[in-house]
Amino acid sequence: MSTTITATELKSNLGLYLERAAVEEILISKNGKPVAVLTKPKEEMLFKLGKHRGKGKHSYGDYKEELARGLSEKYESID
Question: Are residues 47 and 67 located together in one domain of the fold?
Answer without folding.
Answer: yes
